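Table S2 (continued). Query chain:
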Amino acid sequence: MATPFDYELTELHTHVGGAVSPEIMWSLAHSQGIKIRGKDYWAFVDSITVRPGEIKGINDYLDLFNVTELIQSSPEGMEESCRSIVGGAYRKNLITRMELRFNPMLRNRGGERDLDHIISAAIRGTERAMLEYPVSAGILLMLDRRFPLGQNAIIVDKAIKYKNRGVVGIDLGGPDSPGFKVKDYAELYAKAGRAGLGTTIHAGETDANAHEVATAVEELGVSRMGHGVKAAWDEKALKLLRDRGVTLELCPTSNLNTNVVRGVGELKFVVDKLLEAEVKFAVNTDGPEMLCTSLRKERDLLKREGIMDDEQLLQTEDWARQACFVK
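Corresponding output:
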């Protein structure tokens, strides 16, 4: 296969709200009659992208999704978004296996839009991209820390309903929320696992949820974990991740720009600790368009800063394929 790339890649962790190019988001907003912040295209781009030093922390980053999720809050928006993400990932980075994640309830305009229509549209867009390119792709439906348990239970039921049509797993994310407890989700995660879905969770991304790394592994039985970088400071958590074979979904540029890790030196410390503890991890983008990055750029960053070498990066690609819920 004649391509400008040395080998194929796998993307495990990318959010639909952060992975659609600005020009497509601009067109989607106008086609749906959504009022855009400002009339200038370049101001719009600035409103949905992050550059180094522009945001103070993870919550500022999550606020940007309020714009992108609104634009994607329709079947048309979701279908085109998923199609463009999968196709663009192949063309720009030779990503041939990938997972997209999103929360359908953050795209139904407070109940105005039907969840099944939103999910079906995302599946259609993903399937269209797979018809156009030699890519294997799947969808993770996301639960949210801000939602009550019953509301998140509906999302799990939807994931099970569509598990034979392209939904391959569940995730749990969102900002830290008072009253949220990982252990409350043990039965929902067990239900998803019994149905054959893969399970992952955002944990160990902030100091406030660092303790959730061990709890998520022990109580939820996840096989993967989004970010998980705070485990680098917890020997017990590192051992648990290694012994249970949990694969972390690292997102270097995202963690740097949101100050989850404070500089390249701290990022190197995290990677060194994971390698030393024999914890498996994959390299991911989190949201390539929103963060002005790509999976190839993530790998170049790690090499350029002397954090990982080619052999180690190849190992993470192998780990990613092993851990991927898309089979």
